[in-house]
Design goal:
Structural class of chain A: alpha/beta
Largest sheet of chain A: 11 strands, mixed
Helix content of chain A: 40-55%
Order of helices and strands of chain A: EHEHHEHHEHEEHEHEHEHHEEHHHH
CATH superfamily of one domain in chain A: Isopropylmalate Dehydrogenase
Strand content of chain A: 15-25%
Oligomer: homodimer
CATH architecture of one domain in chain A: 3-Layer(aba) Sandwich
Largest interface: A-B, 63 and 63 residues
Radius of gyration of chain A: 21 Å
Shape of chain A: globular
Amino acid sequence: MSERFCIALDAMGGDHAPDMVVAGADIARERCPNVDYLFVGDEERIRPLLARYPALAAVSTVRHTPDAIAGDAKPSVALRAGRTSSMRLAIDAVASGEAACVVSAGNTGALMAMAKFVLKTLPGIDRPAIASFFPTLRGESVMLDLGANLECDADNLVQFAVMGTVFSRTVLGLLEPTVGLLNVGSEEQKGHESIRQAASALRASALAKNFRGFVEGNDIAAGSVDVIVTDGFSGNIALKTAEGTAKLYAEFLKRTFKSSLLAKLGYLLAHGAFQKLRLRTDPRRYNGAMFLGLRGVCVKSHGGTDALGFANAIGVAGDLVVHGFNEKIRDELARLQAALEAAAPSPEATEAAAV
Amino acid sequence: MSERFCIALDAMGGDHAPDMVVAGADIARERCPNVDYLFVGDEERIRPLLARYPALAAVSTVRHTPDAIAGDAKPSVALRAGRTSSMRLAIDAVASGEAACVVSAGNTGALMAMAKFVLKTLPGIDRPAIASFFPTLRGESVMLDLGANLECDADNLVQFAVMGTVFSRTVLGLLEPTVGLLNVGSEEQKGHESIRQAASALRASALAKNFRGFVEGNDIAAGSVDVIVTDGFSGNIALKTAEGTAKLYAEFLKRTFKSSLLAKLGYLLAHGAFQKLRLRTDPRRYNGAMFLGLRGVCVKSHGGTDALGFANAIGVAGDLVVHGFNEKIRDELARLQAALEAAAPSPEATEAAAV
């Protein structure tokens, strides 16, 4: 898709909204010029911000609503009581075809519940999943689910494997992405029953060629596989543990460079190289979690991010639109329907896995 | 305990056994002189190694067995067929009172199954848990379970909280260790039912004062609490994700220092400071996972470790013996029996948590 399209933004979601939403959109605007923006939220707060960026204002529309979803609102409550919220109206714009995608830095659970309710899932997908990129020793990998579904059965995991594969092909351009199931050991008898069943199903499916079996937590950063499939509970623990550990080592590094005069001099010399490392590992670079499996593109930004991070989330959403991700996932799913059918855990497979 | 005691070593467990077991014991011997060693395994391989360390040989006994547990053996098979294995005979030495503790770098599942079968659990503890130290921004914290119990109910989690608290008091010397339950969000309604039930139980217990509710993956490295309680599946994922991420950043650091001439010069200057950082974050420093909740001290070393790492695992076991950990945990458990009883999820608490 190279024609002009519109991105709907929940202007009131996130710790620093609406300021960082507007400032982020302006950064994104410079990067992809053929996009219009629909800001949904409190007009009185958005207008003065937009006035600071005339070029952005020229391609933007504001849809006023006084309502916003609280960061700690329960998804079920948000769904029931949030019909006129900025988040909901931004999603509605995608459902109506007015916008090609939606980006929000608001409450993750509420966003997922609303997006699922309004946009519905793609055919063949029971539950959407949250996916994100991870830096690895070998480049980048994709992990899903990161928190949408705390408990997953074997069918869900197999569908996540299909979505992750298509995503990796479409967005990362990998022809034959490898897939691993996150587990506590690589031996066949390890882990929960649902994971063992999913493994049997994948081994019997059209994805078998690229399925590498079970992977462990350390395989995420090692880049052992391109797509890591897991339930939302484990995925969220892994995501946040990785973020926390990265922060710890960045802090250790800072303390080390400050620990002696020689180390400080050393830092002055290595400064340029470390600037590059900082850019490469900047968490804002990895901002933008994709909700996969919906009939519409929905990207969740980190709630605490700044304008640059939010711009990256917008960039991810734009990429998915430009690359026709959902069209491709639909095509691939149809093509892989045989895989999904072959992959549905048969009674024999289930029995074998349980031994 | 300041009198002489014996440490039983599974001489055949681990990727580099028996070499690193013997060499590790010699390093440990220099650190704590009043310990005797019982090496269990293939005498023909152990004797020539011991001959290289006369001071160690002087305080060591060798118990010959030709059998060893394979690294990929299923725990149930190891338990049935491994009665004369080096691992089993080393545990037996603790059960008979001949040794004060046992250290093995062998198959974790087999070691846990055998230790539980031979040593039994402490009164009031249904399932033992694997615990280990983690480096944090604020020092060190303890996390359990790291893989012994893939599924845990609320009672198990409450017992882990009690064991972690006692461990933190006894070994880390913290008077009032704070406790958090690992979850995917800090809001009360988040997570699996077992976690929510455990939270209600802990809030109603004698541990309430130091219970900080739910923590997330990033809180592990942040050191938000002193004791992180979780089921063995999530704990294992978190442990290995943290290890993998630390390795990734160490590699990024190495590449950065090699990326330009200035950076290389900078490294030469900062070298000393980085040596200290390396020592501080050396994974071998954190080697030695404690099996808590057993009537005997059992420490699991990382299977791939070297002599220095194995020596640290021996050091952890020795510490637990010297500090009378199991006696203290027994006393504390008796003292906290009221806590455990108050903490047993009542029907009302369960109902409230499920809302």
